[in-house]
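Regression check, 3'-phosphate-adenosine-5'-diphosphate case 334:
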Amino acid sequence: MPSKREKSATTTRPEDAVPSRSTCPKDFISTLPTREGWSTPLIQYNKYWHRPHVLEETLRVQDTFRPRADDIILVTQPKCGTTWLKALAFAIAHRARLSFADHPLLTRHPQHLVQFIEMPDPHILGHAHVDALPSPRLLATHLPLFSLLPHEMSSGDGCRCRIVYLCRDPKDALVSRWHFERKVDGHHMELEEALAMFCEGVSECGPFWDHCLEYWKESLARPDKVLFLKYEEIMADPVRAVRELAAFLGAPFSEEEESSGVPREVVRLCSFETLTGLPVNQAGGVDHGHFYMPNSAFFRKGVTGDWANHMSREMGEKLDLVVREKLQGSGLSF
Ligand code: PAP
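Current build output:
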């Protein structure tokens, strides 16, 4: 009998059939297409490109993760605003029981307050598993869940849990990733080379456009289950975005909260300026065994349009053209 992974891969994407799964994830992974260029090789599974250590966990997620009806899952591609979204969603979801004066976000890194499904964090889970977290769970992921878990993610009336998807102008996401790899991994790929790979679809969790599209389509079909946000829109009007997020999470701001300025307090607490001014986000980090992640690595400029300081106009147009073609007809644009 085929494993669940073989079944879902062939049922959903016959064109992307993967070699049959061996009992050892490492052996299975060694049969998959690999591309060099970024700071670690990227390995293609179910169409998307993954870092090797994350792919092992991704296979585990595919086999064991079961979304619950009251889960809220924050989904981003790397460098699209994960840290910001984690902070905002945490502050909104827990506002009834936490005071702004001694809020956990003042002493803990936003990345350590919301657990990634595919990257167990000792700060949150100890040695436990994400399944051990009590409901309602606030979780995060970079994974394309609808293609990875087609059966678990859908019930008769659509997506089984609520999802907040945050995307960003791909030019800024690429430049942010390129800086991150230089800073954290000491990797010195030329930006031209990174752009060429990104345009081919070879980026962590890419192709960028396919990742966006699978959530975009679900957000159109089930707006009550998938909220689709853009980094640039939050930046343009953060209070409006915070209100929208609170309503989607099922806890809109009351009149009393509005008149006492709670939405503005949430925006201020989670702002780039506030978070980067806190000692916890300036020093320390997490030892993941095979790599060390400094807390400060998740904060750089926190602005829109920084790509223009690193790419030529032609480079920007090249990426815009690829993305426009890939998104054509979907109603999504950047
Ligand atoms: P990830 O690697 O887990 O996906 P993510 O937070 O998406 O992390 O990546 C960091 C980016 O978000 C950085 O973008 P930049 O390189 O263009 O500057 C970082 O500065 C930005 N960022 C982090 N926190 C905030 C925030 N509170 N407001 C706005 N942008 C933020």
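Comparison notes: The CA atoms of residues 22 and 28 lie 5 Å apart. The radius of gyration is 20 Å. No diff flagged against the previous build.
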